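User: Could you go from structure to sequence for me? I need the amino acid at each position, not a summary. Structure tokens:
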């Protein structure tokens, strides 16, 4: 074998080794991490509604009863305010309810996406979403009673306005 053939064989072997090494190093990329930006944004808005602080917890089982009590306290003296305040209170509660419904749907979609390998989440994130959904359902179940309180207090305001 002459010198050029040896170089050609070495080059061929080297390139085939490099190709096999590169191809074995390429693994299929898995699904991306789940995007929680919308969940975090809506959750912060809900926390701000309840506490006036987007950092406080509301979606943990140990907090959901306190959250309902806190919302009830917001409207405790509503009858002492004006009709505009009562209308705003109803709208604020409606917006809060809408946010909770959206969070519930987003968490359910996230759970579906994880099961179908559309996105990845840690075990803690999965458990957190399930816990959050339980708390959301608890809070949503309490909202009809709070709406009734607002309606009664709105009627009291209207009756008071009629007397004047």
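Assistant: Here is the amino acid at each position, in order:
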């Amino acid at each position: 074998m002459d010198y050029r053939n040896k170089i050609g064989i070495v080059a061929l072997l080297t390139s085939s080794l490099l190709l096999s090494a590169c191809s074995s190093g390429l693994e299929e990329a898995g699904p991306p991490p789940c995007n929680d930006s919308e969940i975090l944004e809506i959750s912060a808005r809900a926390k701000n509604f309840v506490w006036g602080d987007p950092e406080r917890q509301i979606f943990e089982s140990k907090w959901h009863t306190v959250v309902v009590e806190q919302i009830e306290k917001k409207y405790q003296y509503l009858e002492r305010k004006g009709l505009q305040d009562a209308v705003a209170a109803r709208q604020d509660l409606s917006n809060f309810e809408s946010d909770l419904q959206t969070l519930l749907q987003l968490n359910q979609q996230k759970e579906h996406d994880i099961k179908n390998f559309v996105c990845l989440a840690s075990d803690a994130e999965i458990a957190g979403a399930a816990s959050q959904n339980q708390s959301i359902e608890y809070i949503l179940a309490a909202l009809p009673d709070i709406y009734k309180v607002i309606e009664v207090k709105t009627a009291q305001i209207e009756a008071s306005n009629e007397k004047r």
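One structural detail worth keeping in mind: The two ends are 115 Å apart (CA to CA).
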